[in-house]
Amino acid sequence: MSNKEIDAILIHEKPKRLKQILLGSAVIAVVVAGLGLYSRASAYHEQAKISAMEAIPSVALVTPSAEMQGNILVLPGTIKAFYEAPIYAQVSGYLRAWYTDIGTPVKKGQLMADIETPDLDKQLVQAKADLATAEANQTLAAVTAKRWNTLLAKDAVSEQAADDKNSDLAAKTAAMNAAQANVQRLEALENFKHIVAPFDGVVTARNTDVGSLIESGVPNQPPLFAVDDEHHLRIYVNVPQAYLAQMKPGLKAVFTVPEYPGEHFTAVLTSTAEAVNSASGALLTQFQFDNDNGMLHPGDYAQMSIALPVNTKTLSLPSSALMFRDSGMSVAVVNKENHISFAPITIKRDLGSTVEISQGLAPDDRVVNNPPDWLEKGDLVNVVKGEAD
User: Fold this and answer.
1) What are phi and psi of 314, to 5 degrees?
2) Which end of the chain is more exposed for a tag (fewer CB within 10 A), N or C?
3) Highest mean pLDDT among 3-12, 47-56, 356-365
4) What are phi and psi of 36, to 5 degrees?
5) Phi, psi values for residue 193, rounded to 5°
6) How far apart are CA 326 and CA 343, in angstroms?
């Protein structure tokens, strides 16, 4: 083959190869451009997804917790003697002597003081004389009536005359009985000249002295003595109305008094007033304590720690979960689809960092902790991992 023929063949092949190269380059350019567009579209969708996720607020949840053990209710209490007796005079006169001062232990019936009653003594003498006169008159009337009844049986006197004598006997007998009753009354008053202890106890007050004028029945007069039975003590505690249902007889309380720091005593609830004081909104309760060793005294202040029984209906939440809304106190609750709703609640007791809820929540509710103020009902939220589901 000649050189001219070879050159003709090469000249024909070059355009054909160039076209193939250009076509391949165009395909590669299209693929590269497509990959770039796809990458940019994927990045855009990923960014949009991230932005959408970031637009949903993330919240941490808390679960209401039920009481595992009863709460301790700390309240002030006032200690009183089991029996308290202010002793007043029943007769007027002058104090002749007293035998027991404050702090003196006394037995029932023990003599504490004597009162001189000259006026009462004279009244008794006169009453006995009146009784003697009435007895004499009654005796004479009885003899006379007997005689007239005998004569009436013999028709020696009229029936009317006999009835008069019998009526006179009845009147004289009544007068004698009245005089006798007056003597007995004055003799009973004479016994009140001797002031005696009403029961075993301790004298806690003496408001009289030898020679003092004693007047009975005078209003607002202080008692001569006061006697307390300190062997058994009552402790009165005003309990808020919220705990009324838990105040049952037999409930125990540990208490302390200032004079014995570090010492703890145990009292038992025996009764309640069964009525809430409208002024204080509290229930008066009575605890009792055996004070055989005489350590405690009436009038003491006691700090009572009452162990309340477990109340499974009461739930606890952190105070940070509370929301103050127009409808009142409420909490934000997340449902299974992670949407927000609001539950109005009733607070039973505020313990500072936590609160006790008596109404409005169930134990399995998912409550938002530290909810933002802008949350609205139906909002979608993202629950932070690691918190309550």
Assistant:
1) -90, 130
2) N
3) 356-365
4) -65, -45
5) -65, -20
6) 13
Closest CA to 368 of 341, 350, 328: 341
113 burial level (CB within 10 Å; 0-12, 13-18, 19+): buried
159-191 and 118-153 are packed helices; what angle lies between their axes, rounded to 10 degrees?
Answer: 160
Q: What CA–CA distance (Å, rounded) separates 237 from 284?
A: 6
Computed over every residue of the chain, the mean pLDDT equals 84
Contacts of 140 (CB under 8 A, 6+ apart): 172
* Rounded Cα gap, residues 247 and 146, in angstroms: 74
Reported confidence tier of residue 10, pLDDT bands at 50, 70, 90: very low
Structure tokens at 237: 């505690």
Query: Does the CA dihedral 105-107-111-113 come out positive or negative?
Result: positive
Alpha carbon distance 23, 345 (integer Å): 75
Distances in Å between the Cα of 246 and the Cα atoms of 220, 252, 280, 311, 315 are 40, 12, 19, 9, 16
| Side chain identity at residue 150, one-letter code | T
Does this model's pTM top 0.70?
no
The pairs formed by 127-131 with CB atoms below 8 angstroms and a separation of 24 or more are 127/179, 127/182, 127/183, 127/186, 128/183, 130/179, 130/182, 131/176, 131/179, 131/180, 131/182, 131/183
Cα distances (angstroms) measured from residue 212 to each of 61, 189, 219, 280: 77, 19, 17, 42
Read off the tokens for 195.
């002031």
Which residues make beta-bridge pairs with 341? 333
Specify the pairing of strand 346-350 against strand 315-318. Answer: unpaired
Digit-coded pLDDT (tens) for 246-299:
889 999 999 999 999 999 999 999 999 999 998 988 999 999 999 988 899 999
